[in-house]
Description:
Layout: H1 2-15, E1 19-25, H2 34-52, E2 56-63, H3 72-75, E3 85-92, H4 94-97, H5 110-120, E4 125-129, E5 133-135, H6 137-145, E6 152-155, E7 158-161, H7 171-180, E8 184-186, H8 206-223, H9 226-233, E9 242-246, H10 247-253, H11 266-276, E10 280-283, E11 290-293, H12 304-313, H13 319-332, E12 351-354
Parallel strand pairs: 1-2, 1-4, 2-3, 6-10, 7-11
Antiparallel strand pairs: 3-12, 4-9, 5-11, 7-8
Helix pairs in contact: 9-13, 11-13
Amino acid sequence: MIESxxxxxxxxxxxxPPLSIVVASRNDNHGGNILDRMRLFVDGLxxxxxxxxxxxxxIFVEWNPPRDRLPLADILPAxxxxxxLEIRFVRVPEEIHNSFGxxxxxPLYQMIAKNVGIRRAKGEFILCxxxxxxxxxxxxxxxxxxxxxxxxxxxxxxxxVPSAILPEWTWEQKMAFCRKNxxxxxxxxxxxxxxxxxxxxxxxxxxxxxxxxxxxxHVRKWMQNPVKRRLLDLDTNACGDFTLMSRKAWxxxxxxxxxxxxxxxxxxxxxxxxxxxxxxxxxxxxEKCTYHMDHPAGWESMTPxxxxxxxxxxxxxxxDIVWEVGMQVLNSGEKFQLNGENWGFADLTxxxxxx
Length: 355
């Protein structure tokens, strides 16, 4: 009887899982060793959903798949008996991609691809993330508790670690490696939200850092424009790696802004849009983080001149535009209204595979 109840429970969760995880990719080796990083990512989610009994779906939006490469569904790990993670592959064909003017320079429109996943997600909450991450156990335990607030959008730190994790390591070895090899931490500190651009050593002295944070809180309250303060409080750094909110919130903001541009800063606009409509931000504590497998072609790994050369080939938004838009919509509480009703190609049916 207990076993029958468990089977029925698993079936119901598969119809309407609490969490949908949305990523975008293609089999073209972008960023270097992309298949190795994707396999580690999927293995990690299979391991953690099983350990924490978190029923979820992972939606891989395969954008503009190369004709001469195998589809991702054929080369990535698949769930086995007893797993509680369903993996869906949604393929957006070349013809859709070629409808964009900069399609030759930008082979993957990451945020538009994620919109495709958001519109097709079944979960009550939707996490948009990336395919070269591992989640800390503390973060996954938080997700598995199922105590998410539909009026909140969640952010967590991204920790860059060397891309030296071996697939044959145990999960404990992988987590230990990540904890011991932190190269860089991106995102705001949940205990020091009023400190910006401080030297890392400051946080090694908790009494001093928290006192400084307390003082800055009151300085900002009296000296800064309230709208500017709200905008500065948004945790936009590396927010493309982890933005979690309810399905309703994603629908309210109309997904990511769909522009024929490289994806930089488009993820930040999603936070601005949510805040403008009254959704509250929650920054998770330091241990609830993602570990990013660093790679030479990553944005954070580029020198300033390399970034200029990159953007000369693949134009993107500057943060000055994000700032101006943020000041306008946070002041007025208006929606962007830049996407049409069919954002994420909601009116089209794409090929889909389930694993």
